[in-house]
Amino acid sequence: MSIMAYQSVFRTELFKGHVALITGGGTGIGRCVAHELASLGAIVVVAARRREPLEQTRREITENGGQAHVELVNIRDEESVDTLIRNVVAKFGRLDLLVNNAGGQFLSPAENISVGGFRTVLELNAVGTWTVCRAAMLQWMKEHGGAIVNIVADYFNGFPLMVHTGAARAAVDNMTKTLCQEWGKFGIRINSVAPGTIISSGMQNYPPPVQQMITGGFHTENPSGRLGTEAEVSSAVVWLLSPGAAYVNGACLRVDGGSSLSKAAMIPHPDDIPIKAFLGYSNASRLGERDIPPAFGELLAQYAAKKTTSKL
User: Fold this and answer.
1) What is the residue range of 287's domain?
2) What are the BP-aspect GO terms (predicted)?
3) Which residues pair with 48 in a beta bridge?
């Protein structure tokens, strides 16, 4: 075997003889995970709807001595997913590792998202992930065990401009915790990884003004002072799939540089006060200031005097 192009931090042949399925494996984070697992000896199957990026990933891996194969799938279609899992098991005789990375969304203020658009993203990201998990469990892992990692997102403080995917990713994370409890008896471990803002091909989906906002200043607005890389997400996925994480089940590993704890808002908040404050005291300028530093008392007075458009 030639020297692998991908330089993993994990030991060589960690997954030798294992079969790994990565949905959405032709681009971005999924492609990176496929490269790393192949570099560690796994037989990798990359699956998605479009053949061209899958074939490109397969060529990249095989040209560097790895084993990679392509399967087409529409994760929104149950029959397509069942066929995918059946093909993998028939070809390789097993399915040890599953990474649910396939998904999609679009950027939009919540009020502009139609019911149909909202439903489509939930069906793809949440129902699609469930469909693949269920098929893998029923067709192989229920009898033989396995490890699953679901890719979610940094939805923990809401997801402005992508309410649909925030709802879907939260659903997947909760589903992961539920399946951990129900499927542990089958020898199945299932965890999720929540990437923050990652430098990836997915950035092409954002319009130029958003790209400029991210690269112009937002990229430093977290404790690590930068954006993340595909390889950093992949390392987390690989660790969760590995024997080293044998006692990790139902967890959500945040790979976000601490951004979910402290970060800039993706959308600007108003400088005025659109939502009227409730102060309680009839004489807010005096009673409401008891034991409060003067500067904050001034704020209370401003809140009491503020006229807003809110009817609440």
Assistant:
1) 270-312
2) fatty acid biosynthetic process
3) 72
